[in-house]
Amino acid sequence: MEPLEEKIAHLERITDDLSAVIARQDTEIALLTRKVQLLLDAEAGRNRSEGAHIFSGNEKPPHY
Hints:
Blueprint: H1 2-50
């Protein structure tokens, strides 16, 4: 019975560690997503002020 209890304790520890990693990664992904959006917005504003066209990825290239 003791080996099973040790294994369960070990698995609980691993689960807790992985949960903490996932929570940290979720926070980091949210922060990076916000930074990328801010950079895209800043670049779009810069290009608008210069009169340049912004390719958003949802439109066909000019040669079509």
